[in-house]
Write a structure and sequence with these properties.
GO molecular function, one term: peptide deformylase activity
Strand content: 15-25%
Helix content: 10-25%
Number of helices: 3
Catalytic activity: N-terminal N-formyl-L-methionyl-[peptide] + H2O = N-terminal L-methionyl-[peptide] + formate
Bound molecules: the ligand CC(C)(C)[C@H](NC(=O)Nc1cc(F)cc(F)c1)C(=O)N(CC(=O)NO)CC1CCCC1, zinc ion
Keywords: Hydrolase, Iron, Metal-binding, Protein biosynthesis
Shape: globular
Structural class: alpha+beta
Protein name: Peptide deformylase
CATH class: Alpha Beta
Organism: Companilactobacillus zhachilii
Length: 186
């Protein structure tokens, strides 16, 4: 299980590297890494456990954030209506975004990051819909099409694998200006 002490913070060079592709068959270490990353997200969304262990409730976690420069990220987007049926629960291995909609989207509250302790205000414009090619645990290539909030989370995590942080994408000149055609997601 990871705790906040295990999460690498901005300033550590590992967050600015392009991570290495994961090799198949998965090593025991990589299997454990995937399990531990998803476990963090599950436990951090359990209010009682998160409170007890002072965890920030996470919807996504990328391997570089726990100090492992490999192309693996976990995503767990809860479903307000039914906690037992998350909107998206997936481990993305060697993910590549192969299609971006022209339509842009941004979270109305801006973004944050488990690895960035400071608050950086401003809209983070992203694609509203994306198609991701990734490998599953057996090494088979899979395709995932996501839109809106789950797509924002996937883009945020895949950025981590390529050394990007959310605030890199906030406009320096006008952080709260948005192209009028951008979908604002609350
Ligand atoms: C940085 C933090 C504020 C902890 C953010 N959580 C979040 O935005 N809210 C949240 C948490 C839940 F558990 C359930 C829920 F529906 C909403 C987050 O996990 N990330 C993931 C991250 O830092 N990955 O590297 C930041 C988000 C900003 C936009 C997408 C991911
Ligand atoms: Zn992040």
């Amino acid at each position: 299980m990871y705790f906040m002490k295990d999460i690498v913070r901005d300033g550590d060079p590992v967050l600015r590297k392009v991570a290495k592709k994961v090799q198949f068959p998965l090593s025991d270490e990589d299997k454990a890494l995937a399990a531990n990353m998803m476990e963090y997200l599950v436990k951090s969304q359990d209010e009682e456990y998160a409170e007890k262990h002072q965890l920030r409730a996470g919807v996504g976690l990328a391997a570089p954030q726990v100090g492992v420069s490999e192309m693996m990220a976990s995503v767990l987007v809860p479903n307000e209506d039914d906690p037992d049926k998350p909107l998206l629960k997936i481990t993305l291995i060697n993910p590549v975004i192969v299609r971006n909609s022209v339509q842009r989207a941004a979270l109305s509250e801006g973004e944050g990051c488990l690895s960035v302790d400071k608050d950086v205000p401003g809209f983070v414009p992203r694609a509203d819909r994306i198609t991701i090619k990734y490998d599953d645990f057996e090494g088979n290539s899979q395709t995932l099409r996501v839109r809106d909030y789950p797509a924002i989370v996937c883009q945020h995590e895949i950025d981590h694998l390529n050394g990007h942080l959310y605030y890199d994408k906030i406009s320096k000149t006008s952080p709260f200006d948005l192209d009028p055609s951008t979908v604002v997601i609350s």
